[in-house]
Amino acid sequence: MILAEQSVALTIAGSDSGAGAGIQADLLTFAAHEVFGTTAITCLTAQNPDGVTAIEALPASFVAEQIQQVHRYFKVRALKTGMLFSAEIISVVADFLRRQRQIPAVVDPVMVATSGAVLLPPEARTALKEKLLPCAALVTPNLDEVGVLLGEKPATPAAMAAAGRQLVQTYGVPFLVKGGHLAGGDLTDLLVKPNGQVSTYTAQRVTGVDTHGSGCTLSAAITANLARGLGLDYAVEAARVYLLRGLQRSFVLGDRRFINHRP
Description:
This protein has 263 residues and is of the alpha/beta class. It has eight helices and eleven strands. The two termini are 15 Å apart.
């Protein structure tokens, strides 16, 4: 199979040595969508499914050079961001997006780990809010990240919708508010747009699968769909189907079940 140049996507994120999330999950997702994946790595992690033992950030100037080298050769149709680590890295990414408005950017605002650990220092959170979010074609926060952005974590679908409207009003871009951390059997995500439109997506929760990397997978799938030319609504809907299928068709490694990225 020959991959067409128009199907190039870029991920700007951290490396997960356990391959469950980050750059590795993004590339698996791009490949499953028949999209050629390029990368700009922001930090290296030493981790496996049991946890992270070390993180090493790359210099912001080197992240910028990776982005520029990809952009100089490839016609990038869409990009996504994941773990950006620092205010300096966020700034160089935002500078690139301001210069390349034609490239839709899906921003996964990786700020809080599943364990509850805060992954961005205060100055980086400020840079994310002031510089990066207004440049996004879509922002995909989970409920903990919504709590960081607004100061209060939604606890119901109605509160999610209200939070989404507030975020859209503040930043002027679409938000996909992900409800995976809500209690209950069903999963509810809300796509809120600046024109006031709210689309609700529901699915039955899949249990017994390690969901590490599910946010990366969803945002990467949306990015791949945008790179293939889908509109935002269709890109989001198809990405949710892809993630749900990967959870339903999970496979076993060691003592756990993991997301299956095979088509």
